[in-house]
Design brief:
two-stranded antiparallel sheet; single chain; 10 strands; 386 residues; 49% helix; 15% strand; 8-stranded mixed β-sheet; alpha+beta
Length: 386
């Protein structure tokens, strides 16, 4: 891993930042979020410019790069307050899994559309009775001739109303108990027996969350991605990118918050000098700047390890990056609001409206408590606690 980015990566950062500047948080993202409207215009332009598929194979319309580049895109969008949540699931999770384990037909059908953003595929793993314990997933696939019948329930599934399909994590009928042996299925959102119900969320964001009900959803054999009795590594091929992208989004939010605070601290004058000249303002901002940069380095390390094929090294770094980025971004946003004083709570600046969405990073895609469990067990070698 080099601390000096290549010219190509620098140019990509600049191009993405220029795009995001056209879709500012205050003028575009926040009004959309307040109306619960997806960021369609930004998504479409990002797709047409090739940003959404930078990690996907060139032969299927992607950029042929890696998770580093996709995380870079997410970071730069989020640093302008214009992060795209569905980048986490569509090109990062689903695109990666299909690239690694999909059939030629699945790759030909889905990867070009995921790369240019003309279609979205979201990801369904979380269940109401399983929570963080994915081994307790009960969504079950059973054979019916050459077809599969899928039955179960999912919760907190992002963007189903925008997607053409959901990559559902299930277990086959033979593995209803014991350790999870996941089977992954591409489920069209218009399939008979597939129902989605919006969940009422008390946060301001442009993307909706859904509960899914699958009642004997009939799928052809071609809906199965990878092996029927898949190893967990097939599932983890998508979960490590998920954590990296979550960290990239949080890092970007932290950068956005710091930039807005610095702007205000330079302009706001009290007692004949800008408030940024006072250490009570300057030092907390310097501290969160350091913490966001540290999280960013771990995020880039995780992406580098993942692209190099070091799955276990990437798992450790991705979990650490996601934890660090979530904590740093929340702290940066809180300090930005504090720097603005009462203005930080006004609609004019829109910082308070970001709190709920930024807070998600401590919970999803994996809670900070489960990350601490992972680090304690796998990094420190302590006994498993759960």
């Amino acid at each position: 891993m080099s601390f000096i980015e290549s010219d190509e990566r620098k140019e990509l950062r600049a191009a993405v930042a220029a795009l995001a500047a056209k879709y500012s948080y205050r003028d575009y993202v926040l009004p959309k979020a307040r109306n619960s409207e997806p960021l369609d215009e930004l998504w479409q332009e990002a797709g047409s410019l090739g940003f959404l598929g930078v990690n996907l194979p060139e032969e299927y319309g992607g950029g042929g790069a890696g998770m580093y580049e996709l995380a870079l895109v997410m970071e730069e969008l989020s640093a302008q307050g214009a992060g795209l949540l569905l980048m986490v699931v569509s090109p990062a999770i689903c695109g990666t899994i299909i690239t690694k384990y999909g059939t030629d037909a699945q790759k030909s059908e889905w990867l070009p559309k995921l790369a240019d953003g003309s279609a979205k595929m979201v990801f369904g793993i979380t269940e109401p009775d399983a929570g963080s314990n994915s081994h307790q997933i009960t969504t079950t696939a059973r054979r019916d001739g050459d077809d599969w019948l899928l039955t179960g329930r999912k919760i907190f599934i992002s963007g189903v109303d925008q997607a053409e399909a959901v990559l559902i994590v299930a277990r086959t009928e033979d593995h209803k108990t014991g350790k999870l042996k996941p089977a992954l299925f591409i489920v069209p959102t218009d399939a008979p027996g597939f129902e989605k119900t919006p969940q009422d969320m008390d946060i301001i964001e442009p993307d909706h969350q859904f509960t899914l009900f699958l009642d004997d959803v009939r799928l052809p054999a071609t809906a199965l991605v990878g092996k029927e009795d898949a190893a967990l590594m097939q599932l983890f091929a998508g979960l490590n990118p998920e954590r990296i992208m979550g960290a990239a989004m949080a890092v970007g939010i932290g950068r956005y918050a710091i930039d807005r605070a610095v702007e205000y601290a330079k302009e706001r004058t009290v007692w004949k000098s800008p408030i940024g000249a006072h250490q009570g303002i300057a030092h907390p901002l310097a501290q969160v700047k350091i913490e966001v940069e540290l999280a960013r380095l771990m995020m880039l390390k995780a992406a580098t390890l993942y692209d190099a094929g070091d799955e276990m090294g990437a798992a450790e770094a991705a979990n650490m990056a996601k934890y660090a980025a979530a904590e740093a971004s929340i702290k940066a946003l809180d300090q930005a609001i504090q720097t603005h004083g009462g203005s930080g709570l006004t609609t004019e600046y829109g910082l308070a409206a970001m709190l709920g969405a930024a807070r998600i990073a401590r919970i999803a895609p994996v809670s900070r408590e489960m990350i601490l469990n992972f680090v304690a067990q796998h990094s420190l070698g302590l006994p498993k606690s759960y």
